Amino acid sequence: MTLPRTVADVLSDHVTFEVECIDRMYLNVYVPQLQYATGLVSYIHRHLGMPVASTAALAPISEAFTQAVRAFARDRNIPWVEFAKGQRKDDIAHEFLTGFAGSEGVLFIGRAQEKSTIFRTRKRHRDDGSPYPWIAAETAVINHFYFYCVDADFGPFFLKFASYFPFNAKLCLNGNEWAKRQATQAGLGFTPLDNAFAAVDDPACLQAICDTLGPAQIDRLLRKWLARLPHPFTRADRAAGYRYDLSILQAEFSLTQTLDKPTCGRIFFEQVIRDNLDLGRPDRVSLIFGRSIYRGRKNHTPGVFATRVVTHGVTPSLHVYYKTTQIKQYHKQGQALRTETTINQTRDFGLGKRLTNLAALRQIGYTANRRLLAVQRLSHDPITGTDVLHATCDPVVHDDGTHVAGLRVTDPRAQALLHILLVFRMHPRGFLNKDLRHLLAEHLGRPPGAITTGQATYDLRRLREHGLIERIPHTHRYQVTETGLRHAMFLTRVHDRMLRTGLAELNDPIRTRLGKAADLYQAAINNLADRAGIAA
Predict the structure, then answer these.
(1) Rounded CA separation 476/472 (Å)
(2) Burial zone of 202 (CB within 10 Å; 0-12 exposed, 13-18 middle, 19+ buried)
(3) Nearest one of 220, 209, 223, 222 to 178, comparing CA atoms
(4) Would the pTM count as exceeding 0.90?
């Protein structure tokens, strides 16, 4: 029995180039001293000089920031968008981006109401009953301002500010978009593939560019645009040490492997899904992430360990989970296999959230992508299978334009030739043109002599061009090749025992198991059409 190969092994025969890169990053932008109540009290008492620690003193600051944002949009004629509930913000950003011609700037500013943690003053009472103010954090639905921008180095990104003090923000960027712009600036030729690369002149140079993205470049992006956009904190605030810092909320690490035969990629990935539905088992997840997983009562690793297959439209994707981290794998735009590890909680791997941990997280993400490919198994190579099927059954076209007909599986003449090859394989001295004419007429139910020499010569050329027979040197005899024997045996049995039998059962008035299964499938399709309102 042949052991299944890993996906990594199979891909080594079909990948033209690959690149690893930080993909989407979602970062917290916050002032560290103002993330807890005592820090806020210190800001109000010491920095603002207020005698009573109450969030009422912060209301004018929040209002001033809101007014500054609206004035910024008005004075610069920047489009203002009121996001509706459930509206996809990225779709709106894409519409604005298609009409943007500059190298960088603000595409639009959007306002949305979202949940956020804010500080409010609540009244408490001492033991003697006297009241006193108490500042505490709570969740509320407040306005958020989205600044969708284009940067010369990073491309499209957005910076989202809460409208309430302490104005916590989120920065969202894409490392592959950054790599595209760095490659362009370096004069490196490439063909884009959405947020990836379909082809590149120098893969090693591109990988070196991707490896340079780190905390320094990301921090520089933030500082650059904080200086351009309305800043919630004054210069006096920043001089006193109230400055924004960055931490990692979510980080995606991608491996894009461009296939040499894109048309076979969908077939390949669907086979990967079928052969690896057990990837979510704890023992296999442990191999992928290199982490011990405990399922006992005392030492229990949290999280759901499962494999999930998701289909959006007609594009399937495979998902594997470890705690709050997931790996997603899919066939990207018909050209590449994309594997992405998304880390939603750095502490899943014993790391802090500060941006200084990015290098360690990148190593974890890249390693998980590679380990997934090493853990995944394939019962066969579907790309090679597709190539062999086409090589046997499709026409052969030479460089000079000459055309040799193929051997269609359902063509009676092609099936007759394949059956005859099984007979000729038993001829140790090979066979002649006249031998083929005699047996071909018999298989096609024609009288002897009905097949002419020219017709047999045409068929001999077909068989030879497809590698099923070869001419014995210095003779007019032919012999069946090893490939010819294997392919003839398989294709004749598929035709005679599978296709004919299956179609007969599907059309038998007495319903067979296959016919009943087809009826159930058709009923399910009809039911779906009725529920979707598209039935005739």
Answers:
(1) 7
(2) middle
(3) 209
(4) no
- Verify that 316 and 432 share a domain, yes or no: no
**pLDDT tens string for the chain (536 positions)?**
455 678 888 888 888 899 999 999 999 999 999 998 888 888 888 898 888 778 888 899 999 999 999 999 999 999 999 998 888 898 999 999 998 888 899 999 999 999 998 888 887 777 777 777 778 888 899 999 999 999 999 999 999 999 999 999 999 999 999 999 999 999 999 999 888 999 999 999 999 999 999 999 999 999 999 999 999 999 999 999 999 999 999 999 999 999 887 666 677 777 887 777 777 777 777 777 777 766 655 666 666 666 777 766 556 888 888 888 999 998 888 788 899 999 999 998 999 999 999 999 999 999 999 998 888 887 777 777 777 888 888 888 888 888 888 889 889 999 999 999 999 988 889 999 999 999 999 999 999 889 999 999 999 999 999 999 999 999 999 999 999 999 999 999 988 888 888 888 888 888 888 889 888 988 888 887 787 776 55
Q: How far apart are CA 5 and CA 383, in angstroms?
A: 13
- My answer on whether 227 and 143 are in the same domain is yes
Per the CB < 8 A criterion, the answer to whether 334 and 262 are in contact is yes
Partnered with residue 5 across adjacent β-strands are 378
Which among 39, 22, 19 has a CA at the least distance from the CA of 248? 22
**Residue 90 to residues 125, 159, 174, 279, Cα–Cα distance (Å):** 48, 13, 13, 31
Q: In what order do the strands lie in the sheet with 315-322?
A: 80-82, 105-125, 131-151, 155-162, 169-174, 15-30, 245-259, 336-343, 325-332, 315-322, 307-312
Extended strands (E) in 333-483: 336-343, 377-378, 396-397, 403-404, 469-471, 478-480
Taking the CA atoms of the chain, what radius of gyration do you get in angstroms? 33
Domain count, the chain: 3
Same domain, 102 and 221: yes
Strand ranges in 260-352 using DSSP code E only, listed in sequence order: 307-312, 315-322, 325-332, 336-343
Structural domain harbouring 277: 1-26+176-212+244-381
Which 3 state secondary structure label does DSSP give 418? helix
The DSSP secondary-structure symbol of 148 reads E
Asked whether residue 267 is assigned to any structural domain, the reply reads yes
Same domain, 52 and 157: yes
Please tell me whether residues 152 and 180 are part of one structural domain.
no
Residues 105, 175: Cα–Cα separation, whole Å: 19
326 strand-pairing partners: 321, 342
Backbone angles phi, psi at 218, to 5 degrees: -70, -45
* One domain for residues 338 and 409: no
